[in-house]
Write a structure and sequence with these properties.
The protein is an alpha+beta fold. The two termini are 25 Å apart. The chain is built from five helices and five strands.
Length: 167
């Protein structure tokens, strides 16, 4: 409601293009709805998910919730926020629903190579916040401050350039 009210007020003042920088997957459906509402009013909304941008800019940066990508980003922002004693992930941890239904992304699983959404509470997917992906090397222990700085700078540059092209 808050985002919708802000967008509606800005729209009332003549703004017709909006860029939403998202940092939380749970916000995605709401922001997509806001963008569709804008489209219905002949305006545009672009949704930029920083973690997707990072993985598209450099496949080695592709990761998941609580994995190497996010850990590196936080190390770059403030290393004190990373509890290094919790970085070791128990071997064999998986977020699968079984051998035939491996975890794919967030609330998705794969069946015969097709991603299927199975909405669940996050606590039913992970008990430690880390979502295991099939991306090789996506582990928090791989994260470094240097990786985070390079990644966040590249994402920021991309967002700035996108803003110029979208205006």
């Amino acid at each position: 409601d808050l985002v919708t009210r802000i967008v509606n007020e800005l729209y009332r003042f003549g703004i017709r293009k909006f860029v939403f920088l998202n940092g939380h997957g749970g916000n995605t459906p709401v922001l997509q709805r806001v963008c569709v509402d804008l489209d219905n009013k002949h305006a545009l909304g672009a949704l930029l998910n920083w973690w997707t941008i990072a993985g598209d800019l450099n496949p080695q940066w592709k990761g998941g919730h609580g994995g190497g990508e996010e850990t590196a980003g936080i190390l770059a922002v403030d290393p004190r926020l990373v509890k290094t004693e919790h970085l070791e992930i128990p071997e064999g941890i998986r977020n699968d629903l079984g051998d035939a239904l491996p975890y794919s992304a967030w609330t998705n699983i794969l069946y015969k190579g097709v991603s299927v959404t199975v909405p669940r509470e996050i606590r039913d997917i992970t008990d430690n916040g880390w979502l295991v992906h099939s991306f090789k090397g996506d582990v928090p222990t791989r994260a470094t401050r240097e990786w985070g700085e390079e990644m966040l700078n590249a994402v920021a540059d991309y967002i700035a350039e996108f803003g110029g092209a979208f205006s």
